[in-house]
Amino acid sequence: MPCFKTRFSVVLTGMLLIHTAVMAEEVPENVTKIAPLLLEWGSDPILVEAVQAQNALGRTLDEIKRIDAEWIQASEPTPFMIEMQSNATAKELKRLEQSQPYFVELFLMDDQGANVAMTNQTSDFWQGDEAKFTKTFDGGKGALHVGDVKFDSSAQSYLVQVSVPVMDSGQAIGALTIGIDLDRLEQESR
């Protein structure tokens, strides 16, 4: 089994992908091959509309952090969490996730990094202080971000999160994170 120890980021500037990396082993080329498809997902009308609607709520960061604290403390899924996994936007995320066997988790964030919808429950509600959001939202410019490769002991495979901006009229209005099972991606690419 390959040993991936990596820090990898991909920055989208216009239509040019610029790769920067500090790594022991490279993230498989197959991840960069599917990046254009994932970037397209950031313009999916269902996802764009859901992010626009949540952004229009005008939640303050204090309100988001309060929801985040309640989310983290919940011992089982709350009705709010269940709704985020079963609404029309979550169904669209599930459709995208099921398009390939190597997609394992998708979640959508608003312009502050708060969850909008997801296929699996995340450990927290607010992603706004994490690279998957900050590097992807990029102050409204939008960028593609590939996170660190990690071994998931429950799945017994190497996973990476790829995040793409949700774009509207050339501006990032949110972000979408896609979990990718690298072992399955490699198998499918053979």
From TrEMBL:
<protein>
    <submittedName>
        <fullName>Uncharacterized protein</fullName>
    </submittedName>
</protein>
<feature type="signal peptide">
    <location>
        <begin position="1"/>
        <end position="24"/>
    </location>
</feature>
<keyword id="KW-0732">Signal</keyword>
